[in-house]
Every structure is written in structure tokens, then in C-alpha cells.
Amino acid sequence: MKALIVWGGWDGHQPREVAEIFRDLLAKEKFDVEVSDSLDAFADAEKVKSMNLLVPVWTMGKISPEQLKPVLAAVEAGAGIAGCHGGMCDSFRQETEWQFMTGGQWVAHPGNDGVKYRVKMGPAKSPITEGIKDFDVTSEQYYMHVDPAVKVLATTRFPTADGPHAGNGAVDMPVVWTKTYGKGRVFYNSLGHIADIVRMPPVLELMRRGFLWAAS
Prior knowledge:
By secondary structure, this protein is of the alpha/beta class. The protein has a single domain, classed as Class I glutamine amidotransferase (GATase) domain (Rossmann fold), CATH 3.40.50.880. The chain has helices at about 15-30, 45-50, 65-75, 85-90, 95-100, 195-200, 200-215; strands spanning about 1-10, 30-35, 55-60, 80-85, 105-110, 115-120, 135-140, 145, 150-160, 170-180, 185-190. Helix 1 links the parallel strand 1 (about 1-10) and strand 2 (about 30-35). The radius of gyration is 16 Å and the shape is globular.
């Protein structure tokens, strides 16, 4: 199988380091992996269409129509797409079709970095989460705007840190989900602010399983 990882955007999310973690992870699963630090890699429609898996690691960027359209077309035709944190669901804030494809968009992280919170598996059951126990993480707790069509595989409880959301009471925010876009499979995990979070064993295992699910 073939995978394309494209990294860049805001350096605070350590995109190069995260891309290398994902490259190694996919190589161990026998993927033929190509890594690029340019969105122009997405502009090659034939190459993008030939991939089993697309992995964006790009936060707060701008993407041209020539770069975006081949990705949308490839996923709609059956390619998988999978990613984490802002690298996939805070990539291109002005591109609503990207958000339609990925299933959500970051809007806030009350308390910023360093919030300790629990990630709870469920409510939906999936081979991606089977056998993984609930776990705690200290990082950014992503408040997302989420497509109601997604299949939610893990959640976190808000509020933890105070903020303008707190008066609404307790809500279970999706952390991990799957969906489809056309014939393509979409996997997302909101964890992964920095490389050390991605390397956490349960996070890395969720990504490994999510990559394999999306690519299949």
C-alpha cells in the first residue's frame, strides 16, 4: 500500500517530528511512504489518486484550489485520509469543503496547553479502540465543531478548565472519530499537540489502527 504524508504549517505543532513518527509507523506496516513538506504534493492529481492513504500534518495554512481539489477527488473516489490534532482539523480554516471531508474543526482549547483530562473510549465500538482502556493526558483539550454524521470512538468531558463554555454544563466532546467522504474512509484523533503526545502508547496505537482502517 502507498501513503503520502504532507507536513508543514504552524511550527508549534512540531509537524516535521510528527510526520517522522507517522512515517516510521507506516513503514513498519509495510506501506510505501512518501513524505513532502510542500502542499504542491497534493496538486499532482494522478499521484494523489494512486495513494491508499493521505496523511495531512499541516496546521493553520492556506491551500490553493489546485492543491485542494485533487485531495477531495481522491478521497471521494476511495482513498483514505487520516490525521490528528490541528494537523488535520485545523488545517485550512477558510476551506469549508476540507472541514466537510474531515468531519470537524477546532474552535477552542480552554486552559490552553497543560490541561489534564481523561479520554474515554466509546460510545461507538470499533476495532480501532478495542482493548484500549480509558487514559489521562496532559495537553490541549480540543473543543471541536463536529459533523453529526461521524462515528464517535472516544470522548472527553468538558468543562475541565474554566471558560465561556462552562455555563453550558457538562458535554462529552468527540476526540476520535471515523466517517466516510464519498467512497473514502476518514479517521481523526484530536490528540497530538506535540510529538511527545503522539508517542504516548495509546495515542500511537489509535493512530496505527486508524491509518490501517482508513487505508483499507
